[in-house]
Sequence to fold (706 residues):
Amino acid sequence: AIRVLEPIIAGKAQKMNWRSSYQGRWTLDHTADEYFADARAKLLQILQLSPEYEFPYVMALFAATAYDWLFTETFSDGRPVFSDQDKTQIQQRLILHADHLKNRANGSGQPFVATDVDNYYYVMMGLALYEPSRSGDPAYQAVQTKAQGYLDAFERDFVGRVVPFWQKQGEDGGWHGGFNQMQIPYWTGGSYETATNVTPLTTAPILFALYTATQQPIESSLFNIGMLKYMPEFQLHMILPSTMDSESDATYYDLDGPGDRYSRSPWILPMRAYSRRRFSTDAEQQRLAELGAWIRTHFSKSKTDAGSWDTTDQLLFEDKWVQPRSPQEIGFPLVRHFKSLGRVFLRSGFTSPDHLAGLFICQPYHWSAMDLYAQNALILYYKGALIKGYYSPLLIGGAKQRTISAFPSIQDGVDSYAPGSTWDVGPGILVCEDRSDHLYIVAEARNAYSKDKLTSFLRKVVYLKPNRFIIFDLIKTPAADSRLTWTFIPAALFQRGDAGLLRLQNSGGGALWMKRLMPTDAVEENITAQSYELRSNSGASERSFIHVLQVSDASLSTTSPNLLIDDAVLETFPDSVRISLPDCDVTFSTEDRLQVRWQPAAVPGKKVERRLPQPFQLYQNYPNPFNPTTTIGLKMDYSDFVEIAIYDVDGALHSVLFRGRLEPGLYSYRWDGKDHQGGVSPSGVYFCQVRSGQHEVENCKMVLLH
Fold:
């Protein structure tokens, strides 16, 4: 059925003399009249198919489009390609198939499942049949009424009910399923369609048709919903470090299992999302379009440069670029937090198979059966997998995260995904701060477990660029005797080394080093090639797991000065935890605050002499919020000059509480909520900043409420 479009394109190419400006090989050997006659005959034939199985979907995507493209077309002698009888027959058959689809789109399906959402293809018949110029024509009234009904129903049911689901999951981009099962079947929709397909991409053609038919700017069209707009960026991060500019296949994260090595669809379908963005006047749209073109021209060229059934898909949706720039040249960062979805991707680069890649997952909701559902999981790749598997990183009494098997239907409404609902497995990622030297993530996954088993599962991940990680888990359980297992799936068997180090090596020449800092006792360690498990048998209801990791080449040895985590030391304080490494100190404080302090003379990747301890530690004010006074605590580790000042959110100085030298010890200072002139400060957020003579700075946030 898709072949009905190809002769139309060929006929228009001949008629408009595209050959005069085409630089490639010209293979059209028929006249425009012959191509148009062939397309007409094919269209009339396929429309006679019964509205069962896949045929209505085919009619919606291809027959409705062919009717629209040929509606005003003429042969070289001036005769219309369609006679009036042809038009009447085609209109009746399009309505027959549209009604079949519209009846199936009754809201009982699920909003993320392609086999359900494909039923909304009926809108294509509405676009093809609706004729504003004939709104007063009695002879066309019945067809016009049908067409208007399809458009109205689509606006009500798809735009009003399905799109809110998509925006809740992917307003800033992302798709909770994988890319490996993506496909363009010979028949689109129905029983040949797969429920695991990437639904926004299977639906992209009709949203693209609406965008072009309404002549809206792309920025305000349905084609610009987050899942499609940011698809190039999501695809970029889904591609694992792979060989570029090669016939060899690139690979995606296997969220949905391994891919079919013969399938071109995972590399062809995403082109639908890039389409026409380069012609926008909006700079962001142009950047996304160029990124898509860069991906298409640099990965899996055996797929993107070949084709048969997907050639027309490429012809319709792909925008060619000459030498598109790389992601970093365009301005795309190495870290991307897809907030609505609940995933953070990190990279050390995009252009080499030897770059490091990582994925952190903590979603606010379990979206559908395609969702891998591994809350607080961290996956790492370097020259192959290091930490793999989308698996519960915490077991309670041997039990994984709770099972969810049924999901909201379209008619249930997007509000089904709400805090406290069955599908609430978060709250999700609370903090994602990307800085030049480190990335800091804080995520809470308490709702992924039964409430009678878990009170809190707070995971803090620090990525010390370019190759070290700290994983700090704080777990609270209702019962003190809960048996906890901290676990992940390694790519190979860990080997034990000195200083409590574990090391694994993958087949590509990458290695992962790990050192446990907490807990230090009452644990059982179980190491196999399939899993790493650390069981805590402590009787406490609140327990912590702290590990430091370093990624390296397999050639790195324990005697190398570039191995830095073997000297990691843990220090605990009443309201903070500090991890000291040869070149930096990392301090986790209350309210999920993080401080990374590097040695002033540190050379990246080299061990250095440990510097003096931090001169002070600032404690959170109490009470907070407060009215009208609050107390701020300060601990001095050694004598130093300090200034303690209060600033508002705009950085304006309100008051200086102290300026001078302090000796080692504990101090407290009181702020009465007044500025340096004695005036009452208004309600709002303020910051207490402590600055030392060693240029160390700490801040704490305070809230004044009158």
About this structure: Residues 335-611 form a domain with the Beta-galactosidase; Chain A, domain 5 fold (CATH 2.70.98.70).
